[in-house]
Amino acid sequence: MKTGRVTLVGAGPGDPGLLTLKGLRHLRRADVILYDRLASDALLRQARPDAELIAVGKSPGDPLGRQEEINDILVERAKRGLRVVRLKGGDPFVFGRGREEVNACAAAGVSCHVVPGISSALAAPASIGVSLTHRGAANAFVVITGRSSRSGGPPEYDWEALAKIDAVVILMGHASLADIAAKLISGGRAADTPAVSVESATTSCQRHVTGILANIAACVADAGLRNPIVTVVGEVARMARGEASHVEHPQRARRKPLVGRRIAVTRASSSSDELFRLLRLAGAETIACPLIRAVYPSEAGDADSALRRLRDFNWIAFTSMHGVEGFWRRLKWSGCDARSLAGLRIAAIGPATAAALHRRGLVADVTPPTFTGRDLARAILEAPHDRRPGSSARVLCPRGNLARTELESELRRAGAIAEPVEVYRTELIEPPAAAAAELARGVDAVVFCSPSAARQYATLGLSGREAILAALGPTTAAALTEAGLPCGLVPESADVRALVAALGERLRHEEALT
Ligand code: SAH
Prior knowledge:
The chain is of the alpha/beta class and 514 residues long. The chain is 34% helix and 20% strand.
């Protein structure tokens, strides 16, 4: 049996763009990914859809026994012949216990490699313009931890020695910041040495406070900075952008109305990149909580017989991105390509579906003004088609097994021919444990893009505390209501841009009220 291997991949400080190319390659190939609490959703979405994702959410205060458990999982999966990636925040070897994982693998005869990452110790100061070795301000820097496994507080450093180093970078120092500052001062460091603390560096929630060694802990507490933070002590901290002790970036907050908001999305993450991208652009922290999954048939079915009769149709109407993907798979499976569609007019229900077509080199002839089956039918019926006498629209409708039949029934009511063919199936699934835990921790909104996800949410009893339940369109909103859940938001037009804008508006108003 082939043996697997373990790769420790440094995930970087938070911004997914700060993962190395090599790390990304490993992530995309992995059979199993063990990730930390701080790992970004965007990175996890790089995983293969069938990869096993295991959250090993170490957080301050977790029993140390967790590390042995992680080691055991790494070794056990690798011995099963799997490619295992251990995704670790920042750099795996900077206060990351990475070497313990390497040792555990070595002891078990499992090969283990390390892909370094950008440590928050470097990225956090850089993100606010602080150069740790700025000429004239610092010739050296040291990185220390505020938490030792033995005492829970800072390790027994030689504080007098540390006090002499130009720049001191403190990781895991939120709880012990006052203690560390006092120890540096009694070690001989001037109480008025500039200091800066950065929260969630390189993410959309980044903020920082500046102060001096004597009051930096109080500044952090006053500003309500939360973990994770990096603190820099030394002349170099003067370089921190922004003079105020609490820099909130008001312009950025206006452009990014969802900064600091946690939004769960219940659709399959592989299909929802645009939605996730827009939410993150607006500053939100996104939580992928898929409740449905599209499954594409691997055997011939109705769609294949329709493909042999494409001449019978003058339109093909797509009502979802999965419909495009599923149809494309059948087309390829039948040994055909886009040329088979020559002469057919193409309709797409909305911009995301049209974009999926566009990626395959096809331009939709019609997209209705509002993205419903009824309006799609109207757009097809009103568009010029085959003008031969007595001819009517003959529409092939690739769809999922649970998709709505509104398009077909509207077309038929108008005397057109509509032939639905199933090109994918929607399966109801339980969300990954980590996503369910995030939901339970509390989110500001939960987004639903389909009635099946809404029903599954109700069936699983996932109701988040006080979260706004947002539906992409009126049908999904109705499904929420039927399932006994209050739908708190439906955008005027059923597209993801409108949804993200409406969420921004709503949450801004909520904030104004509290
Ligand atoms: N191996 C990691 C550090 C792990 S220890 C690295 O190289 O970055 C966890 C600590 O890292 C946190 O307590 C915090 O001090 C720091 N940290 C990690 N990501 C951070 C971020 N985005 N912003 C600020 N601090 C961060």
